[in-house]
UniProtKB/TrEMBL annotation:
Species: Fusobacterium necrophorum subsp. funduliforme Fnf 1007
GO biological-process terms attached to the record: transmembrane transport
SMART domains (alphabetical): AAA
Record's signal peptide: none
Gene Ontology terms for molecular function: ATP binding; ATP hydrolysis activity
ABC transporter domain: residues covered: 2-234
Keywords: ATP-binding, Nucleotide-binding, Transport
Nucleotide-binding recorded as keyword: yes
Stored Pfam families: ABC_tran
PANTHER family attached to this UniProt entry: ABC TRANSPORTER, ATP-BINDING PROTEIN, TRANSPORT ATP-BINDING PROTEIN
Name this polypeptide is given: ABC transporter, ATP-binding protein
Length: 249
């Protein structure tokens, strides 16, 4: 579904991605793991066409990104509050992408908004609230609603639980997993959070200083990392003790 072919990104002489190649299968949750500065978010920015590659090619269903409709790839960022217009009600925020994509009838937009709020575990009454009236977890649910409302094929989640407390993190992980299973949407889950990656990702790509260290099924990586850096990464973060518990999702 998604192919990165020898992709590099330079800012001047500094390489933030070096010869990165990987593929994402339709319907999977693909985790991108690495410490701060590893190049994780650069991959997300390239997919969202916020920046361009220096070298290499990115294909989505065999097409270059510039040939795609923007509705096919959506995103959920780390900070839900800054992602939402504070002057608009939640219903208005969620109607905007529908209006921009040709849904002109107010009744049809309203129906879609309420259906989507229900999918992400929010109430119809939340449509009449402003972002400031919601909790952090509720705001992130709104952001997820905004990402799925146009039925995209891929959602890029860039550290989507980093600003939330542990109990809410678990709820958001379960929501993402449920949407993946019920809607068939593919997810690119970018995180430095080992327990989160372990619990939700089907496969992972481990980055270090812009280079791919390994790509493995998630369980194989946590129990039998292939690379020396992978072994050090797990040991340094005490991943085995902290995250090898039964998946709740």
């Amino acid at each position: 579904m998604l192919e990165f072919e020898k992709v590099s990104k330079y800012y001047g002489k500094k390489a933030v991605l070096k010869n990165v190649s990987f593929s994402v299968k339709r319907g999977e949750i693909f985790g991108i793991l690495g410490q701060s500065g590893a190049g994780k978010s650069t991959i997300g920015k390239l997919l969202l066409q916020m920046i361009k590659t220096t070298e290499g090619k990115i294909l989505f269903e065999g097409k270059e990104l510039k040939e795609l409709s923007r509705r096919e790839i959506q995103t959920v960022f780390q900070d839900p509050y800054s992602s939402l217009n504070p002057s608009l009600k939640i219903g208005q925020i969620l109607e905007e992408p529908l209006l921009a994509n040709g849904v002109k009838r107010k009744e049809e937009r309203r129906k879609k908004v309420l259906e989507t709020l229900k999918k992400v575990g929010l109430l119809e009454s939340d449509a009449e609230k402003y972002p400031s009236e919601l909790s952090g977890g509720q705001r992130q649910r709104v952001c997820i609603a905004g990402a799925i409302i146009l039925s995209p094929k891929l959602i890029v989640c860039d550290e989507p639980i980093a600003s939330l407390d542990l109990a809410i993190q678990e709820q958001i992980l379960q929501l993402i997993y449920r949407i993946n299973q019920e809607e068939g949407i593919t997810f690119l889950f970018i995180s430095h959070n080992l327990p989160a990656i372990y619990r939700i990702a089907d496969r992972i790509l481990l980055l270090y200083q812009g280079e791919v260290q390994e790509i493995q099924n998630t369980l194989d990586f946590f129990y039998h990392p292939n690379s020396e850096y992978g072994r050090q990464f797990l040991q340094n973060t005490k991943a085995r003790e902290n995250s090898l518990t039964k998946k709740a999702v």
